Amino acid sequence: NAHIVTNMWIPTEHEKYGVVLASFRGTVQHGLSLEIGDTVQILEKCEGWYRGFVLKNPNAKGIFPLSYIHLKNANIKNKGQFETVIPTEDSVITEMTSTLRDWGTMWKQLYVKNEGDLFHRLWHVMNE
Questions:
Q1: Quick count: other Cβ atoms within 10 Å of Cβ 18?
Q2: Which residue has the higher pLDDT, 10 or 1?
Q3: Taking the model in full, what pTM does it have?
């Protein structure tokens, strides 16, 4: 009898909410595409991966590498299948996150248009 080892997905206790640090294309089976700055709700974890969804699109669930996520503190309501997370972060961080997201969009457009010098100037500003 060959034992088939299946990866066990374990519901997360404390890892419930986070911000995406780097875009993820979701090119694995059941992979979920993530954009930098997205906020995610985490449902389960397994060997370096989370399963969850982006808060702005809760119907699309999938997996993504846990190394792409910066965990945040959050309060959980209705623990279990229909739980919701309420971030406990302050408004400054929320503001910074949305600013970074806007910059990411601008940056991508500059890169696609091949505005190399502008792209690098923005890169320097972001790294100050």
A1: 23
A2: 10
A3: 0.62
